[in-house]
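Researcher: I'd like a candidate sequence for this fold, 182 residues long. If you have to choose between options at a position, lean toward the conservative one.
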């Protein structure tokens, strides 16, 4: 295995199907550019005469658009920034925390990462989109699904405050799971 001697940047990106690791190699003498997503090579370019520019690729099950920007800072110093879905990684993650809820719990000795996409009400667990059944209840809605032999439900209840909006709570086997901060 060739050693990654030109590794210049590593990012972790939390998407609905999991946390993805993006690594970037940039050979400033050869102009080589290599992008790895979760350890798999996505792009390899050798002998690029232009040392600045952009590499675009996709990440995760939903094929989310990503781009690495290469900018010259001064002399032979370069800056590498990652854009996800056309936004800087920081902006993307801030926006994502408004549009999704994430819970991390252990079930039957396995760590489960459950993600709710609030706009579509899709529920993901460890990279797979789950079958769900939604129902209206007295104080809001319930989205039912199962993970293994466990009955799960995400309750959506109005907070009564416009700024807070709807509060989503994950219940697994009648136990409330605290939300994770990613």
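Model: Candidate sequence:
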């Amino acid at each position: 295995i060739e050693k990654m001697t030109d590794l210049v940047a590593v990012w972790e990106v939390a998407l609905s199907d999991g946390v993805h690791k993006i690594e970037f190699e940039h050979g400033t003498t050869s102009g080589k550019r290599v992008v790895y997503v979760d350890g798999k090579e996505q792009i390899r370019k050798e002998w690029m005469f232009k040392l600045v520019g952009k590499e675009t690729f996709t990440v995760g099950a939903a094929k989310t658009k990503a781009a690495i920007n290469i900018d010259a800072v001064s002399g032979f110093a370069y800056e590498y920034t990652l854009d996800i879905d056309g936004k800087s990684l920081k902006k993307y993650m801030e926006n994502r925390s408004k549009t999704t809820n994430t819970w991390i719990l252990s079930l039957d000795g396995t760590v489960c990462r459950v993600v709710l996409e609030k706009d579509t009400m899709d529920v993901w667990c460890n990279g797979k989109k789950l079958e769900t059944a939604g129902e209206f209840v007295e104080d809001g809605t319930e989205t039912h699904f199962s993970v293994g032999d466990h009955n799960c439900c995400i309750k959506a209840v109005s907070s009564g405050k416009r700024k807070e909006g709807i509060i989503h709570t994950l219940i697994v086997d009648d136990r409330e799971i605290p939300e994770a901060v990613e």
